[in-house]
């Protein structure tokens, strides 16, 4: 079967660091995506990992372990505007692009 | 450079009706995917179009159909609407490993 698991909600304090975990089980895995989605808006691309290891992009970093079916998104120096849902998605290409299997999202609330 | 655009923004229909949603991909993108996002859930893959053909399909009934035009724009059609079809419908265009999402169409079925 295909399954993406991530926590439903998390709370953190402005200026802190938060790690959002994601475990996945898919066939034809071809990369792990993270998206940010503010309420009522479309998902915005944050990161893509296809090889094991850490990818850093400004305040956001994403890690992948293919052998463990595990990824995390690390947000540093949290700002109030980071309050949003964070979606983990596994690429399930099967030879083509674009078929993403999404988790239900982690709603992050950043408190002052 | 315009990103992915979708129309209409909002739509209200009644059960049994048919609806057509439209999507224009980001410039230079030739692949369009459609997703359905119910409230509080992650997006679910409906299907993908490339070179005017349906290339992949998710677990959605035949009531959901689509089309891609030579200019890469795409339509999603849903027939015999059910209350459960109420959702945000997202279009995403891709070229390479990034997928860019449009703002979505909020469909409400009464």
The percent of residues in helical segments of chain A reads under 10%
User: What composes the largest sheet of chain A?
Assistant: 6 strands, mixed
Care to count the β-strands of chain A?
11
How much of the polypeptide of chain A forms β-strand, as a percent range? over 45%
Number of strands of chain B: 11
Low-confidence stretches of chain B: none
Multimeric status of the protein: heterodimer
Order of helices and strands of chain A: EEEEEEEEEEE
Count, helices of chain A: 0
**General form of chain B:** globular
- What is the element string of chain B, with H for helices and E for strands? EEEEEEEEEEE
- Biggest interface: chains and residue counts? A-B, 25 and 27 residues
Account of the 3D structure:
The complex is a heterodimer of chains A (112) and B (110). Chain A has 112 residues and is mainly β. Chain A is built from no helices and 11 strands. Chain A has strands at residues 3-5, 9-13, 18-25, 32-37, 44-49, 53-57, 60-65, 70-75, 84-91, 100-102, 106-111. In chain A, the strands form 2 sheets. In chain A, strands 2, 4, 5, 9, 10 and 11 form a 6-stranded mixed β-sheet that branches. Chain A is globular and about 40 Å long. Chain B has 110 residues and is mainly beta. Chain B is 0% helix and 53% strand. The model of chain B has no long low-confidence stretch (mean pLDDT 93). Chain B has no helices and 11 strands. The termini of chain B are far apart. Chain A binds chain B through residues 4, 31, 33, 35, 41-45, 48, 50, 87, 89, 91, 94, 96-105, and chain B through 31, 33, 35, 40-45, 48, 50, 55-56, 58, 90, 92, 94-104.
């Amino acid at each position: 079967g295909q399954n993406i698991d991530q926590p439903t909600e998390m709370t953190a304090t402005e200026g802190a660091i938060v790690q959002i975990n994601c475990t996945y089980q898919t066939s034809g895995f071809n990369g792990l995506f993270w998206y940010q989605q503010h309420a009522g808006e479309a998902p915005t691309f944050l990161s893509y990992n296809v090889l094991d290891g850490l990818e850093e992009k400004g305040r956001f970093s994403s890690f992948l372990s293919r052998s463990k079916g595990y990824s995390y998104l690390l947000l540093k120096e949290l700002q109030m505007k980071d309050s949003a849902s964070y979606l983990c998605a596994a690429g399930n290409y099967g030879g083509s692009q674009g078929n993403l299997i999404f988790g239900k999202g982690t709603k992050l609330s950043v408190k002052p | 450079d315009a990103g992915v655009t979708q129309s209409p923004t909002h739509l209200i229909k009644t059960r049994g009706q048919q609806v057509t949603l439209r999507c224009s991909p980001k410039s230079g993108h030739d692949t369009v995917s459609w997703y359905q996002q119910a409230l509080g859930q992650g997006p679910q893959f409906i299907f993908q179009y490339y070179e005017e053909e349906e290339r992949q399909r998710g677990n959605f009934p035949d009531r959901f159909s689509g089309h891609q035009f030579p200019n890469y724009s795409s339509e999603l059609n849903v027939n015999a609407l059910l209350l459960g079809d109420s959702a945000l419908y997202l279009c995403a265009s891709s070229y390479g490993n990034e997928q860019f999402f449009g703002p979505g169409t909020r469909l409400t079925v009464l």
